[in-house]
Design brief:
Elements lengths: L13 H9 L7 E6 L7 H16 L4 E8 L11 E6 L3 H13 L4 E6 L11 H6 L6 E5 L8 H13 L2 E4 L2 H11 L6 E3 L13 H6 L6 E6 L8 H14 L3 E6 L4 H7 L2 H13 L5 E4 L5 H9 L3 E4 L10 H8 L4 E3 L3 H6 L6 E2 L5 H13 L1 H15 L4 H15 L22 H5 L10 E2 L2 E2 L5 E2 H13 L4 H18 E2 L4 E2 L2 E2 L12 H17 L3 H17 L6 H17 L4 H21 L16 H14 L2 H17 L29 H18 L2 H15 L19 E3 L2 E3 L4 H19 L1
Parallel strand pairs: 1-2, 1-4, 2-3, 4-5, 5-6, 6-7, 8-9, 8-11, 9-10, 11-12, 12-13
Antiparallel strand pairs: 14-15, 16-19, 17-18, 20-21
Helix pairs in contact: 1-16, 2-16, 8-10, 8-14, 18-19, 18-20, 18-28, 20-21, 20-22, 22-23, 22-24, 23-24, 23-25, 24-25, 24-26, 25-26, 26-27, 26-28, 27-28
Length: 761
């Protein structure tokens, strides 16, 4: 018989659609495909592998990089197409994968999403990856929840916002996305679940192969768990076997790993006990194992009827149902979403949830009418021809071509933004009140919920001491920031506090080592150069009180901050032999750290990179100049040279070490998220290197780092605004972080002051 096959959604004849699809010239040349993958044993793994194989067959010119999800307790021996794996519960693993995906420059990321395969609350870790890739994202939603909990709703909303294309396998799922999640309908496409392409065959040969000759075979397949409703069919067996004693119910599939880990084989054992009690044990065969696709299809080919007694009415996707339909199997099913749509038009029997009597009657009716059974088989098989994997991949690729714009290469260079002479100090004032400068913002509005910290108020004090802004405004706010630093000193603990709530209450008695080091740095700058006599006298006094107590605090950056503050004092005030000895001690400790840690490919003070990296090099160079210590200067320059190398992109722009790189031993740095403090630190460190060497290359490097603020970066986007003085918090894979916190704001202002001598030169 010659079947005329139609696409379910478009009603276009499949042969016609296939020819049209093959005429597409993909502008998509590379796809990053994320999901579970074989040999992991689950439906998503099989689905993702089928997508890969179909794309490889239909579009051999398109490169597909597979990124496989590892569950919490396993790793797998993946085939060669798997570029890498992602550890489900490790946030860093998602960031590393994002960097590797971005390095391959795909045109599209295609995510297979199911709650339960990603880590974090409701699988939120996957958002860390998607937020760090800049290309369009398509997602196939294998579950669409009509009543999500708050975490599921939050993650789904974020996922829908991030994705350019949202693929579902049922019209009902599309409607849920529109009604419940307010998803843009233009984003959504419905493509039925893909299936293998097998010929229409008789059941008898396969029955004989499996030892089921002359049996009436009813089959259910899938990972076994209570939601499968297997008990519904077992309870139907007494009535069924009374009419057909030879009936055999085959339950094919291993118990779901989550059930095994929590309850072992309790569910399977309870079903076996039920069959024993009903006297139908000989009419049930349990095949406990995971089948590959070919094995599964062989088993399904032996079935007379396929049963899906699932208990969840909201289930929008069932791969096993699609596979059964693809082999032309008459289906008796509960009316869950996918079954209602796929079996519409008399292509199967729908029975109420838990209705064992209804299942028995429907199966008996089918088995008694052999002619009708064969007719249903043929109609079901014809229906499924639009779902075979070649049609699935063609429909997906056509949607990608439609929904993903072509890359556009600018034909004219972006006009460079001139370096400003000054920035409006008003931007700093807007972020401050008479307690101090607030830490964070929501977009451009200071966020009171996070209060204040000494880190930012110390930076603000340094800025006020160095700024040439309106004297009245500057001096007024200098006193505010100095007052915060003064109040932060805890004389009982002989340490600075760091965090303060918006209500003015300190949240700790002792701040971190680095925050204490930064306070000393600010006091040193104020002691040396505060334009107000009273502030300068206060800073000299508190610096003298605090420095002995803080001499022993460790961490390379705390030492660097203390050196920078102490060098400022030594350069401006009468010589302090004890302070000089501290500078020598801290500098020698940094030198020893460098010598202990450096390798041929790692010229640094620690086995990891963190924030404000260039401050360590700057501290050694400035202290070396003061002390006439050539070893300090040379190690400072060597480390800064290496830091400059790894923070310069292939296009020559400054590319700050991203926060994703932090605390990864001896690992190549990752590009995101790039923080303004790194650019500001590099400007100051290159300034110190120029003073030490007189080599113009260090001026060039300082200017290159500063221009990162103005848009000379990988996205060509300004991070700082020279007209308003505001600054965004980071450069991310998809653009800028639109929040404008104090750290970023102050970094931009301080860097603008530091770069001026090099602009004039």
């Amino acid at each position: 018989m010659d079947f005329q096959y139609f696409d379910i959604a478009s009603k276009i004849p499949i042969r016609q659609k296939s020819d049209a699809a093959r005429s597409i010239r993909p502008r998509i040349s590379r796809i990053a495909l994320i999901g579970n993958y074989l040999p992991r044993r689950c439906g998503i793994a099989t689905f993702t592998a089928d997508i890969f194989n179909s794309l490889k067959s239909q579009y051999p010119s398109v490169k597909v990089d597979v990124w496989a999800m590892n569950d919490s307790s396993h790793s797998y021996n993946y085939p060669s197409e798997v570029s890498g794996s992602i550890a489900q519960n490790d946030p860093i693993s998602y960031r590393l994968a994002a960097a590797a995906i971005s390095a391959n420059k795909p045109d599209l990321v295609w995510l297979q999403h199911e709650f339960g395969i990603f880590g974090g609350r409701a699988g939120c870790h996957i958002l860390k990856l998607l937020d760090r890739v800049s290309v369009p994202v398509a997602v196939t939603l294998h579950s669409v929840l009509s009543n999500p909990d708050s975490d599921q709703r939050r993650v789904t909303d974020a996922l829908l916002k991030r994705c350019a294309i949202v693929m579902v396998m049922a019209e009902a799922a599309k409607q849920i996305l529109i009604d419940t999640y307010r998803c843009d309908p233009a984003k959504i496409c419905v493509i039925p679940h893909g299936i293998p392409d097998r010929p229409f065959t008789a059941t008898a040969p396969m029955k004989e192969r499996f030892g089921w000759k002359n049996r009436k075979v009813i089959m259910t397949f899938g990972l076994l768990s209570p939601g499968k409703g297997i008990e519904t069919v077992i309870l139907a067996l007494p009535a069924l076997t009374q009419r057909f004693p030879e009936a055999l119910y085959v339950v094919l599939g291993a118990t779901h790993p989550h059930c095994i880990s929590q309850n072992g084989e309790t569910y399977r054992d309870s079903l076996k006990a039920m069959a024993d009690d009903l006297g139908v044990s000989n009419n049930v065969e349990w095949i406990d194992g995971f089948c590959d696709t070919e094995q599964l299809l062989d088993y399904l080919s032996a079935a007379d009827i396929y049963a899906t007694p699932y208990l969840n009415p909201a289930q929008v996707t069932s791969g096993t149902l699609a596979y059964a339909v693809g082999l032309g199997k008459p289906v008796v099913s509960t009316p869950y979403v996918h079954a209602i749509e796929l079996l519409a038009g008399g292509h199967g029997h729908l029975i109420d949830f838990g209705d064992s009597k209804g299942f028995a009657n429907a199966i008996i009716d089918l088995l008694e009418d052999e002619v009708g059974l064969m007719d249903l088989r043929k109609r079901t098989y014809a229906l499924s021809r639009s779902m075979i994997w070649p049609r699935f991949s063609e429909a997906a690729m056509a949607r990608f071509q439609e929904g993903i714009p072509p890359s556009v290469v600018p034909t004219t260079p972006i006009r460079p933004v001139p370096i400003p002479e000054t920035l409006p100090f008003e931007a700093v004032i807007r972020h401050s009140n008479f307690t101090g400068i607030l830490q964070h913002s929501r977009f451009g509005v200071p966020d009171r919920r996070h209060g204040y910290c000494i880190d930012d108020n110390a930076r603000a004090l340094i800025l006020a001491c160095r700024s040439h802004a309106d004297i009245i405004q500057r001096d007024r706010w200098m006193a505010v920031y100095a007052s915060f630093v003064d109040h932060a000193w805890n004389p009982q603990a002989c340490r600075f506090r760091n965090f303060m709530g918006f209500d003015g209450q300190w949240l700790e008695d002792i701040g971190s080592n680095d925050s204490n080091g930064r306070a000393i740095w600010a006091l040193g700058i104020a002691a040396a150069s505060a334009p107000i006599d009273g502030v300068r006298d206060w800073a000299q006094n508190l610096f003298g009180d605090a420095i002995d107590h803080l001499a022993g605090i460790d961490s390379p950056r705390a030492k660097a901050f203390k050196i920078l503050g102490s060098v400022a004092v030594q350069n401006s005030l009468p010589e302090h032999p004890e302070l000089l000895s501290y500078i020598v001690e801290w500098g020698e400790l940094l030198v020893q750290l460098y010598r202990d840690t450096q390798r041929d490919d790692w010229r640094w003070f620690e086995p990891v990179l963190a924030y404000d990296n260039a401050r360590i090099s700057e501290a050694l160079i400035r202290s070396g100049i003061l002390l006439r210590r050539e070893d300090f200067v040379q190690i400072g320059l060597a480390s800064l040279e290496w830091l400059n190398e790894i923070q310069t992109s292939s296009k020559g722009t400054f590319s700050a070490i991203g926060s994703d790189s932090f605390n990864r031993p001896f690992a190549e740095p990752l590009p995101h998220d790039q923080q303004p403090v790194e650019a500001a630190a590099m400007v100051d460190a290159c300034d110190a290197a120029f003073i030490a060497t007189g080599e113009p290359v260090w001026q060039d490097r300082a200017l290159n780092a500063y221009r990162w603020f103005l848009g000379k970066n990988e996205h060509g986007l300004p991070v700082g605004n020279a007209e308003t003085g505001a600054c965004f918090d980071a450069l991310t894979p998809t653009g800028v972080n639109l929040n404008q916190g104090a750290e970023s704001l102050l970094a931009f202002h301080l860097a603008t002051i530091s770069i001026q001598p090099h602009v004039r030169r």
